[in-house]
Amino acid sequence: MKCRGTGVEFRVGVRAGYATVVAEWLSGCVMFSGFKEVREDEKSQMVGKVFSNVASNYDLMNDFMSGGLHRLWKDRLDFVCIFVLIISFLSSRCFLYFTCSAQFIRLVSKLSPFPGMKHLDVAGGTGRLSLLNEVYVKNAECAGDVAFRILESVNSIKRRALQDPLNDDLQEETRIHVCDINPNMLDVGKNRALEKGLGEDKSLVWVQGDAEALSFEDNSMDGYTIAFGIRNVTHIEKVLSEAYRVLKRGGRFLCLELSHVDIPVFKELYDFYSFSVIPRLGEIVAGDRESYQYLVESIRRFPPQEKFALMIADAGFQKVEYENLVGGVVAIHSGLKI
Amino acid sequence: MVRLSKWLLKEAGTVVDKTLSDILVCPLSKQALRVCEEPPSLISDSIGVSFPIKDGIPCLVPTDGKILDTDDTMKHDNAADDSANNK
């Protein structure tokens, strides 16, 4: 079997090796590489050594093994799951790039918020994020996150700008609408706004509604974001056409969603993680294997980056492009209404 | 002081409602909405449906609307039928 990414050849079950994984993170590249050859009888010893190595170095990715050990890991799945849990608790820094905050920051930066803007954040309550976080961080903890970041970004612009009456008026006109089909998420979002001191801010408008039938006027929004929500809708085309309808000319559509991985070895890693580790983790931590199984399958069912970009273009958007984060685990699609 | 804050909250509530009717439109007909104080709701006169406001959050999901009959009394009907007729 030859690894397309690195050209390293190895025989499954006999020779194990590190693969060179180039994962593109949000701010920079992290490259792991190494090569180790083992005899078959030393395989299990090496696994044990590697895990304790990793545990002490707090770096999971560094010692990941490719295809050859896949079968071995399946037998020790529970061990892997508990190990992953421990590592992630101990090394939250290491998984910073997996967290929603980093992804939301990237999303909001693409928006270029400005005072006086009218923005719509759909499925603002759901804030589902990295695979690891999904297991032990409740979705509600991210309710309203995108909206808060946009508002803080706009407010920071105001502080930097000169104090003049025109800017103050514009600041009054800024409005971030948060729309979600689930009222509980909106309640949590409202409470989080209060905690952050944004409760009195008239700029935040919470509306319960359906992304497929938005209750906003045509050509009324400067920006539209949907983070980890479009995967769960029934009719993606309807959501896209509604987004096109409410956006002003020159308005930007942004969609953050779990997507498809293409990088050779990382893909196998991700598949193993998704189909074996995540449901088992869900079973251990939340006692609910089916939901996480469904979650993982729904991610796979969602159209790949190119196809989704075509769907966005079909809705009428121009300059449709996408950016892969974490090697394609998450993708930000964007389009302009011209 | 307590009376003042209660009055302020009530005022804030009505102000917010008015702002809502300025910003929001009916999700089905995309026409303007009218604020109703008691029970707090947004009414779409174009299709005769009323959408409730719970805890200050307007609930504009099409299936949550209540159809109003001509006498303005509320029926607990699914507005989805109405939307099907409209389409």
From TrEMBL, chain A:
<dbReference type="InterPro" id="IPR029063">
    <property type="entry name" value="SAM-dependent_MTases_sf"/>
</dbReference>
<keyword id="KW-0999">Mitochondrion inner membrane</keyword>
<dbReference type="GO" id="GO:0032259">
    <property type="term" value="P:methylation"/>
</dbReference>
<keyword id="KW-0496">Mitochondrion</keyword>
<comment type="similarity">
    <text>Belongs to the class I-like SAM-binding methyltransferase superfamily. MenG/UbiE family.</text>
</comment>
<feature type="transmembrane region" description="Helical">
    <location>
        <begin position="79"/>
        <end position="98"/>
    </location>
</feature>
<keyword id="KW-0808">Transferase</keyword>
<dbReference type="InterPro" id="IPR004033">
    <property type="entry name" value="UbiE/COQ5_MeTrFase"/>
</dbReference>
<keyword id="KW-0949">S-adenosyl-L-methionine</keyword>
<dbReference type="GO" id="GO:0008425">
    <property type="term" value="F:2-methoxy-6-polyprenyl-1,4-benzoquinol methyltransferase activity"/>
</dbReference>
<keyword id="KW-0831">Ubiquinone biosynthesis</keyword>
<comment type="subunit">
    <text>Component of a multi-subunit COQ enzyme complex, composed of at least COQ3, COQ4, COQ5, COQ6, COQ7 and COQ9. Interacts with PYURF; the interaction is direct, stabilizes COQ5 protein and associates PYURF with COQ enzyme complex.</text>
</comment>
<feature type="binding site">
    <location>
        <position position="126"/>
    </location>
    <ligand>
        <name>S-adenosyl-L-methionine</name>
    </ligand>
</feature>
<keyword id="KW-1133">Transmembrane helix</keyword>
<dbReference type="GO" id="GO:0031314">
    <property type="term" value="C:extrinsic component of mitochondrial inner membrane"/>
</dbReference>
<feature type="binding site">
    <location>
        <begin position="210"/>
        <end position="211"/>
    </location>
    <ligand>
        <name>S-adenosyl-L-methionine</name>
    </ligand>
</feature>
<keyword id="KW-0472">Membrane</keyword>
<dbReference type="Pfam" id="PF01209">
    <property type="entry name" value="Ubie_methyltran"/>
</dbReference>
<keyword id="KW-0812">Transmembrane</keyword>
<protein>
    <recommendedName>
        <fullName>2-methoxy-6-polyprenyl-1,4-benzoquinol methylase, mitochondrial</fullName>
        <ecNumber>2.1.1.201</ecNumber>
    </recommendedName>
</protein>
<comment type="function">
    <text>Methyltransferase required for the conversion of 2-polyprenyl-6-methoxy-1,4-benzoquinol (DDMQH2) to 2-polyprenyl-3-methyl-6-methoxy-1,4-benzoquinol (DMQH2).</text>
</comment>
<feature type="binding site">
    <location>
        <position position="180"/>
    </location>
    <ligand>
        <name>S-adenosyl-L-methionine</name>
    </ligand>
</feature>
TrEMBL record, chain B:
<protein>
    <recommendedName>
        <fullName>Protein preY, mitochondrial</fullName>
    </recommendedName>
</protein>
<comment type="similarity">
    <text>Belongs to the PREY family.</text>
</comment>
<dbReference type="Pfam" id="PF03966">
    <property type="entry name" value="Trm112p"/>
</dbReference>
<dbReference type="InterPro" id="IPR005651">
    <property type="entry name" value="Trm112-like"/>
</dbReference>
